[in-house]
Every structure is written in C-alpha cells, then in structure tokens.
Amino acid sequence: NQEIIKTTNVKKHYAIGKQQVVRSVDGISIDIYQGETFGLVGESGSGKSTFGKTIAGLTNPTDGSVYYEGNNVNNLSKKERHRINREIQIIFQDPQASLNPRMQVGDIIAEGIDAHGLAKGKARKERIYDLLERVGLNPDVVKRYPHEFSGGQRQRIGIARTLAVQPKFIVADEPISALDVSIQAQVLNLLNDLKDSEDLTYLFIAHDLSMVKHISDRIGVMYLGNMMELARSEQLFENPKHPYTQALLSAIPVPDPTLSKRDRIVLQGEPPSPVNPPSGCKFRTRCPHAMEICSLEAPMWKEIHADHWTACHLYS
Ligand code: SF4
Ligand code: MG
Question: What atom of ligand 1 comes closest to residue 242's alpha carbon?
C-alpha cells in the first residue's frame, strides 16, 4: 500500500480574541493510500473540514507536517508548489457558492486549464466538451450560466472543473450534503466511477457513517480535533472498537442485520467546545466506559490489529 498522503501529528489551532485558542485539529497522524477512498467522518465542529483543507494545502498546519508523495507540502519550491496545486484539488459542499455566476460554464471549466497552460484553441475546446460528457452533461451547455442548472448539475460542473486539471488527489468536502436526497446517489456514483477512470485518490468528508460506508475503502472517525478510530470500512462497521464509533453506529436507523444485534447507545449531551476540551480523552464526558485514567492521560493512537487504529484506554 503506497501512501499518497502522510500526516505526522498535524495540528491546526486558531486564536480567537486574546486568550482563547480553538484546537480545531489537534494532532493527527494518518496515511492515505494511493487509489483509495478514505472516508472521514465527524460531527460538525470535529475539525474534519479544517483537516481536509490542511491536507489539500489550502492552509498550513500550526504544528506537524503533511507529505504528498513523500514531499513536505509546507516546504516546497515554487515549481513544486505549482504542480501540487494542480494535482491536489478540493470539491466543496455548495456548488452554488463555488461557481462564478457571471461566467459561462465552458469558461468555468477552462479556468484551471488556462491557469496551468494545459491546452489552447481547438484542444481546449475539445477538452471542455469531453469533460462535460464525462460528468454526464450535454456539451451544448458550454455557453450557459450556473443559475440555469439544478444543484446536482452544478455539482457536476464543479466536478468537471476539478477534473480539467488532471488531479491525482481530491478532497471532497461533503460534496453531496447540500443536494436533494434523490440525486445524492447519482453524484456519489459519478464520483465513484471517476475515481477508477481517472486514477484518483479521495479524501471523502461526510458527517455520517452511512454516507461513506459503501464508497470508502477505509474510514476515519474524528471527534473534537482528534482521530478516534481508523479501519477498513467493513471492519469498522462489523467490529468497531472505539466507544464513540460504537455510539455512532448504534444510532444508524437502518434495518441492517449486522447492527440489529447491537444495543443502541445514546450519547449524553453535545460535544464539548474545542476551545476548552476535556483533559485526557476528549470523549470522556460522553463515554459510557470512562475510567479514572481517561481524565488524566490522553490515550495513544495505536494499531490494535492490522490497519485498525484507535485511541482509547480500553485497548492500551
Ligand atoms: Fe472512553 Fe476512556 Fe476510551 Fe476515552 S479513553 S473512549 S473515555 S474508555
Ligand atoms: Mg464542514
């Protein structure tokens, strides 16, 4: 398993006001393998989008490092920076907000082609048509404007724009969450097909596990800026180790036979603030298994089986 991304103890802290620090991402060390879909799940405020942006190089970590194909992305030459800006792309949740309303679809898609000098004239035009077809849109739409499309079509335009620069690694930050339920599956299938046809690797961010279950090779679960568990998708669903993952899975209201054996675990209260997180294990204030040590020491991030990681004192 060749890794495309490696993070070592990545932190992203923000100051708010004079005294307070938001520990949005608080020390994450993971690998993302070439060609996989890595599902990243967490409640809002867990830091998953910030971690995604940090991996994509849109923001520098406060501490720790991000490596892309072995190169530290926070320490690149100008030329390498330019290449990586093309190879790593991000797809946002809201296609409406990310498309310039005054630009025609063809020009929106060509932005990256032009910026990176990838094609000109006839080749550029053919590339735009080809991209529209690949995302399931009729090439006749090149001269139309974003407002003339449905949300799902706009997300397809956004995907075509992303593919235009021939990326290798895509951070998809809740790309279907803003879409009607009826078209979520279509866009998800499109992204899944493109992964194979375009040789992509995804970090796929979602707020619930059921959304990433079928498309992810592996899934990481975040809580208050930390990774709580990471495993292959089947393994995580069949044999979750961390009490937080167990609670999330028990809350999925689908008649899945592997889940029905499990008792429902109801989490108490809301997640605490990332400004003043609990000492020791950040999940301890909501954990049904919390012990004395949990408030005293942060649990180590540990591989408990092959490719199955968790941070919990129950396994140390
Ligand atoms: Fe619960 Fe303790 Fe494990 Fe945290 S370390 S999840 S509080 S048992
Ligand atoms: Mg988010």
Answer: 6
Residues in Cβ contact with 52 at an 8 Å cutoff, skipping those fewer than 6 apart: 40, 90, 171, 173, 203, 205
Buried b vs exposed e over 25-52: b needs ≥16 C-beta within 10 Å? Answer: bbbbebbbbebbbbbbbbbebbbbbbbb
ipTM: 0.96
The number of residues making up the chain comes to 316
DSSP class of 299: P
User: CA–CA separation, 76 vs 20, rounded Å?
Assistant: 31
Is 19's pLDDT higher than 90?
no
- The preferred substitution site among 221, 294, 302 for testing ligand 1, maximizing ligand atoms within 8 Å of CB, is 294
Q: Which ligand is nearest to the CA of 265?
A: 1
Is residue 251's pLDDT more than 90? no
The predicted structure's pLDDT at residue 262: 59
- Lowest mean pLDDT segment, chosen from 59-73, 183-197, 257-271, 285-299: 257-271
Radius of gyration (C-alpha) of the chain in whole angstroms: 21
Amino acid residing at 273: S
Q: Quick check: 257 pLDDT over 60?
A: no
* Best residue for ligand 1 mutational test, from 242, 314, 315, 316 (most atoms within 8 Å of Cβ): 314
- Closest-CA residue, ligand 1 atom 3, reads 312
Sort 146 into a burial class: Cβ within 10 Å, 0-12 / 13-18 / 19+.
buried
Tell how strand 3-16 and strand 226-232 pair up: unpaired
Residue 62 φ/ψ, nearest 5 degrees = -70, -30
What confidence tens digit (pLDDT) does each residue in 44-79 have? 889 999 999 999 999 999 999 999 999 999 889 999
Ligand 2: distance of its center to the CA of 44 in Å?
Answer: 6
Residue with the two structure tokens 């279950």: 213
Show the domains of the chain with their CATH numbers. 3-315 (3.40.50.300)
- pLDDT for res 313: 98
